[in-house]
Each structure stands twice: as structure tokens, then as C-alpha cells.
């Protein structure tokens, strides 16, 4: 028996399972999916797709993006474990917590340090820093309190606005 140096982890296994699930949901055969990937310029042959679904082949980030496009889903959909509910405990590589927290992290709302911690142990200021720092500069300016899940403090919204000004000092200037 050959032991792999770096076996497929929980996130790789989730991607594997989700590729299979979405491919079956769409009633796509391996050949159909391989043709879609070829047309996108990121070919994965039939054997490669079969090996992905059996957990024998890793999906790199470029494959992940191409598979998401070919399957008509978000890359997040391939990374998020299929769960029965928001409070179900799920595991991703290096993280274990609720499905809702993992989705929040993938959507840039929840810092990874908060995943698996009860609400009373979560630092709101850390969440604000994460929200502001994880997003592209052009998106920070559009953030308002109503778009920040679980945040209801005006001073934090002001901190995000200040971070947006620092990140993009030319915003709002007329030429």
C-alpha cells in the first residue's frame, strides 16, 4: 500500500463530493463535463474527472475555478460542505465550525478565528478588521451597517469607512 505524503484533506474531499453532486444534478457525464472544460481552455480529461471524484486527483485553484464555471456554480459552492442546516458542524482544512460560519468566512463576513467559537468569545473589532481587510478596496466603500451581518455598532462602520478612505485616498475627488 502506497501512503501519500500529502493526502486529500477535508476541503479537497468536499470539492470532490460537490463536483460529483453538481455533475449528477445536471445529469452531465464525464465526457460532457470534459468538453465544457476544454471549451473554457482548462481541459481535464475524462480520466482526470473520474480521479477527482474518487479522491485520487487534487483540484488546484485553476481547476476549481474552471469546474465552477463549467458546472454553473460559484467556487464557494464547491468549497462549502453539503450540510443539512446552518448550525450543522462542518470541517474544512484547518477549520471546524458551523456551516453558517464557514459560509460567512467564504463570503468575507466571518474571520476564521471566530469559527467554532461561541458568540460571547468573538471579538467584534476583529470581525470589522477582517471584513475591511479581506475585501478589495473598491468594495469597502460600498459597505454599510446593514450589509455587515452581526454588526450593529456605528463606530465600527466609521472604522470601515476610514479604512476605505486610507485604502483609496482618491475616492470621492473630482478631477
TrEMBL record:
Domain HTH cro/C1-type as annotated: residue spans: 49-78
Organism domain of life: Bacteria
CDD domains: HTH_XRE
GO molecular function: DNA binding
Record Pfam families: HTH_3
Protein name in UniProt: HTH cro/C1-type domain-containing protein
Lineage, opening ranks: Bacteria, Bacillati, Actinomycetota, Actinomycetes, Mycobacteriales
